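Lab notebook, bench 4. We co-purified these components, and the gel suggests they stay together. Before we commit to crystallization screens, I want a quick structural picture of the whole thing.
Request: model the full complex, all chains together.
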Amino acid sequence: MFWSILSQSVLLILVIILVGQLLGWLITKVRSSRTHSMEGKE
Amino acid sequence: MYSGLLLGVLAYELVVIVGLGIWLQSRHSSGSASEFALAGRDLPTPVVAVTLALTVLGTAHILGVFEMAWMMGAVAAWFSIAHVILLTFVCLGSGLWVRRLGVTTVPELLQKTYGMEVRLLVSCVLAGVLFGILTVEAQGIGIIFATLTNWSIQTGAIVGGILGILYVIFAGMREIGWVNLVNVCIMYLGLILAVIFIAFAIPGGGGYESVGTFYAETDQASALSIWGTPELFVNFALLNVVAVFFSQSVNQMLLQPAMAARSEKTIRKALWIAAPVNGLFGIVAVIIALTARAQPEFAQLPGAEKIGATTMLIEYLPAWLSALLLASFLAAILSTFAIVALSIATVFAQDIFKALYVPRAGPELVTRVIRLTIIVVASIAIAVASFLPPILAAMIWLFAWLTPVFWILVVGLFWTRNSAAAIATLLAAWITNFLWSFSDLPQWLGFENGANYNAYATTLVSAIVIVVLSLFLKGKPGLLSRNKPIAMASSPVVGG
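Here is the predicted assembly.
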């Protein structure tokens, strides 16, 4: 009971943090590439 | 009455709070408003991380999760998991935005984005919501004292509340941060030891296996899964994620530690400490509550869902360990009580007193107003706490009021800024919440269990109104939009 709840939760917490990091990285990438392309047009 | 235990708990609070307060006072001047409310904006990663984790780890996390796990099973862990999602967003999103813009309060950020009217509207509602949270925290302090003594929860709230007021007016944000750092170490050491001691103390010698067997044999196997049943997942888990995420990610009390961080990098790094520290606490609380519920001696107590878990801690653990654990629980609740009181006072002093009435108020006057406001609002909160509203239900209802602030901020920072659209969104969401709470609207729309769905309703209405109006009304470019160069972090710290 103890290890089952703990392992499910730890895994879920880790997945949430990693997905957050990945999304943050993707958003930064997309925004910086958009800025570069707009600067290029100007 | 557990007199020895009570003395131990009070001794802990005295040594940690007063001792650290004196040490910090000797090292830092607390005269300026920026030093008092934002610790001079130089808190390091460990302090920012544990303050973020403990700011949202109060009565609801400890006593609320005990209560919900007792009634629903391991799905109660989602209250904690919702906070992990929240902290991830704050450390990688909203916390960075407020630090970058150099603001002192969320309403001040709203003024930069939309103007004075929006700042005032949100200040008033934010102060009301924070006050509601403060009454819940006062109730939590009362419950811990009631567990340790023969006092009523109301008397416990008065005694503990006075301790909380003294705590926050002593040294402000810097002390709250450092007390959190010491407390989190003690609390986790206490929790690890408690889990081990409880395993050996469970009657029959079967440890946690026997707890699992109890739920399997009584046809409650779903109580052992954090995913619960599909119905519980929608009505509790998902609802918690929506309410916590959309309201707390722009709440003053959670963004204040981010504003006080040394740099943006400090906040990003803080995620790896804050999210696990906060999340795992709720998981251990769930395990403790499920274990207590499986023991007939605690399950048969009157009001077992509220006091069963804490009573088990006192009965199963050695006196020194239960004193240490309850003291660290109390310190965590006091920390939330303190930072909520500090947030209300900061919003009042900066966004109402200084912004509206005394624009020339100096840092000393603002700090005096913050301290006085803390005493007044905390005293009223202690009085209101005597009505003892249900803990998690009260929190979720309060959170629903802040969901439109999230939407107008995200749209105003990254897309387009139109004050009329923002005001219309705020009013639409607040009217929806009011009607949802005090009329037959949920039943009329076909929701049997509608009273719980405030956060779903306000989130949906806010998102639709702000997106539709922003599409049709012309506005200025977003404040952090890449199309619009701004001098970031160049604005002076108000009162600092």
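Chain A has a mean pLDDT of 84. Worth comparing against the SEC data before the next meeting. The longest helix of chain A spans residues 2-41.
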